[in-house]
Write a structure and sequence with these properties.
single chain, mainly alpha, 3-stranded mixed β-sheet, two-stranded antiparallel ribbon, about 40% helix
């Protein structure tokens, strides 16, 4: 299984929370409460995000954190890299010098291509997209309909979770 670190996952949660209202400035404690993450973890994440230039911090009684750029200008890849460092599917795709097999490994070039594809996919998704109700409708389930809407097959989403521009197909009998 390929899985993000828990900290990177939480970092995306924190950044997405800030993206939901980019003009709002919040304390670390308020962000922790809103995201239901441990306060110490949120403080650590905010420090890393600020160090990467993704979050700006204001000190003082009226201080807090907010995104340093618009949500559409910050990618999921940037958030993950701020927390975990370079995105890599294998150790050698990020740190070739740490692998003794680099010079003769037959799969290394293929992992490098896979690594680039995963990085590109994560770079293509902005925080703005992460806060939308239907950020990722699988292409096979969404069909362009008249008026630029999408039609989802019945049963894909629970009742009542349809944003504007999304139509639910009738169940097939």
């Amino acid at each position: 299984m390929i899985i993000l670190s828990k900290l990177a996952d939480y970092g995306v949660i924190v950044a997405s929370h800030l993206a939901a209202d980019p003009d709002r400035q919040e304390t670390a404690a308020a962000i922790a409460a809103a995201t239901r993450l441990p306060p110490a973890t949120v403080a650590k994440l905010l420090k890393a995000l600020a160090h990467a230039g993704l979050v700006s911090a204001t000190r003082g009684a009226a201080g807090g954190y907010r995104l340093a750029r618009l949500p559409r200008a910050i990618s999921v890849a940037e958030v993950i890299a701020a927390i975990d460092g370079d995105i890599g599917m294998t150790q050698c795709s990020v740190h070739a010098e740490d692998c003794d097999r680099t010079t003769y490994c037959p799969t290394r070039p293929h992992w490098a291509a896979i690594n680039r594809a995963v990085g590109a996919a994560l770079s293509a998704i902005s925080l703005d997209e992460m806060i939308g109700p239907l950020a990722f409708v699988p292409a096979m389930f969404a069909e362009p309909a008249a008026r630029g809407a999408h039609v989802l097959p019945a049963g894909i989403l629970p009742a009542g979770i349809l944003p504007d521009g999304i139509l639910m197909d009738e169940p097939r009998r």
